[in-house]
């Protein structure tokens, strides 16, 4: 099973929407207009393909983004700098096979030279223990809880330190080396 992680393309949006909206109760459904907005504004938006078929995606925003998610705004209120994973989704067929870890590893390689920590959240529903365990295994820890959608949903707010950030900043300052793997994966 060869996995390819690549930048999202406009022609992927229908497949991204289908993966998102069939992923189950722990993933909030998206409308096409909202997905288009995320496509247009995300700092980081990558997809995972296996044999040319899209099986997952991940969307991220830096702490300075003009992102309107209430969870993103919660992190902004509590932390000065972070890279926020707005959404990571793996389809039902592939879930549990390591694709989520691969997507997070790709996002971490992007974020670590730029931000001191990762931020994300988990809905506190019937699948929360499984999802919290997954994130805990990646190094995320709960830093708070909040309400979402007029407090009908509880959300566990998670952070993960990106340990190489300080060394990279001390070594290179704000001018990162001009090497392919570190360059912005997507022109916004």
Automatic annotation (TrEMBL):
Its EC number is 2.3.1.-. Residues 3-164 form the N-acetyltransferase domain. Pfam families: Acetyltransf_1 (PF00583). The lineage of its organism: Bacteria, Pseudomonadati, Pseudomonadota, Gammaproteobacteria, Lysobacterales. Transmembrane segments: none annotated. One of its GO terms (molecular function) is acyltransferase activity. Keywords: Acyltransferase, Transferase. SUPFAM superfamilies: Acyl-CoA N-acyltransferases (Nat). This is GNAT family N-acetyltransferase.
């Amino acid at each position: 099973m060869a996995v390819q992680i690549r930048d999202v393309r406009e022609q992927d949006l229908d497949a991204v929407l289908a993966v998102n909206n069939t992923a189950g109760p722990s993933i909030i459904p998206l409308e096409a207009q909202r997905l288009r907005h995320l496509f247009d504004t995300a700092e980081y938006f990558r997809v995972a393909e296996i044999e040319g078929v899209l099986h997952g995606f991940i969307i991220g925003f830096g702490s300075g983004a003009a992102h309107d998610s209430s969870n993103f705004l919660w992190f902004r209120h509590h932390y000065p700098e972070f890279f926020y994973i707005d959404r990571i989704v793996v389809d039902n067929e592939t879930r549990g096979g390591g694709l989520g870890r691969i997507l997070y590893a790709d996002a971490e390689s992007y974020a670590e030279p730029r931000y001191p920590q990762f931020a994300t959240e988990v809905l506190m529903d019937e699948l929360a223990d499984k999802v919290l365990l997954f994130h805990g295994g990646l190094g995320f820890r709960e830093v708070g809880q909040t309400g979402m959608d007029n407090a009908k949903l509880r959300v566990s707010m998670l952070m993960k330190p990106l340990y190489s950030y300080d060394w990279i900043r001390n070594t290179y300052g704000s001018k990162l080396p001009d090497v392919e793997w570190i360059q912005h994966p997507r022109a916004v």
